[in-house]
Design brief:
RNA Polymerase Alpha Subunit, Chain A, domain 2; alpha+beta; DNA polymerase, domain 1; 3 domains
């Protein structure tokens, strides 16, 4: 069966959820494809996330702010949930300046051109009264997978590094079942369920994951051996072609004679280097006719029997 004959059916797709049915596939390829897609979707896709914040009035992560219900640590935890969609892949700044009373939401953040916050109703903090004020400067950047705050050095006072979740995919699950193709019932059908954060559609997530897998396998297929690998391969090839390395099973002799030589302890052509006629006559089950055949064969290989 040609791999191009399988189909991909999109089911129940929304902005954040999608179900894809892929098949029929050769037996075993359902799990191969499902596991490869799952790992790639969860860890290899890129996106945007807040990586650093500077909260006015707070010098460290455990500070509290006057008139703000949440402490800085809680605000940071809420900030990590901001999901960003942008037209550029570099870093950019965002700013929040909100006075109370009321709820501070992600929608209150001032954004540069070409940047959008998908979950605008996300609550970041609660301000107690009209004298309360929350001012935060955010740094967002483009990355892959997940980045821990401790992996990024902060060299300015009051600047706090944030654990950054760049991956736009929140959850991936797959199921494989057997399907019939003609009379055969051992083909696989893959059901792939994907949930994203809304910055990327499930269909686009599948496409990007497929592109990544294609690039990886193409690199394996098209990779050129290093100079060292070529040298090793060349020397190995020469060694195998050398007459003295010819093993006895490759001798152009009758099977019965080869078996007799094996039992006598001869394994390759180099074992016959110093052999003479008396040695041949002593080999069990080797008569005059077989001895002549062996001597002629060795002569063709450049070994003269004394």
């Amino acid at each position: 069966m040609d791999f191009t004959q399988f189909t991909i059916i999109k089911k129940d797709q929304t902005k954040t959820n999608g179900v894809f049915v892929i098949g029929p596939l050769f037996q075993g390829f359902g799990y191969t494809l499902g596991n490869s897609f799952r790992r790639t979707l969860l860890s290899a896709l890129s996106g945007w996330a807040v990586s650093q914040v500077k909260v006015q009035g707070a010098r460290h992560l455990f500070a509290s702010l006057k008139g703000v219900k949440e402490d800085v640590l809680e605000i940071i935890l809420n900030t990590k949930q901001i999901r960003i969609k942008a037209q550029k892949k570099g870093s950019f700044k965002m700013e929040l300046d909100k006075t109370g009373p009321g709820v501070v939401k992600a929608a209150d953040i001032q954004l540069p051109a070409g940047v959008e916050i998908v979950n605008k109703n996300l609550e970041l903090a609660h301000l107690a009264n009209k004298d309360s004020r929350l001012k935060i400067k955010f740094t967002a950047d483009y990355g892959v997978g997940y980045s821990l705050a401790k992996e990024r050095k902060v060299d300015k006072m009051g600047l706090i590094a944030v654990d950054a979740l760049y991956s736009p995919v929140k959850k991936v699950g797959y199921q494989v079942k057997s399907v019939r193709v003609g009379r055969k019932t051992n083909y696989d059908q893959l059901r792939l369920e994907i949930e994203t954060d809304g910055t990327l559609s499930p269909s686009e997530a599948v496409k990007q994951a497929a592109d990544i897998l294609v690039d990886v396998f193409s690199a394996v297929r098209d990779s050129k051996p290093t100079r060292r690998a070529k040298a090793v391969r060349s020397s190995t090839k020469k060694a195998l072609k050398a007459p003295e390395n010819l093993i006895i099973d490759e001798f152009e002799l009758p099977v019965r004679l080869i078996n007799a030589l094996k039992k006598a302890g001869y394994k390759k052509l180099s074992d016959f280097k110093d052999i003479n006629r008396d040695d041949i006559d002593k080999i069990k089950n080797v008569g005059d006719k077989s001895a002549v055949e062996l001597i002629k064969f060795l002569a063709k290989k450049g070994l003269a029997v004394k």
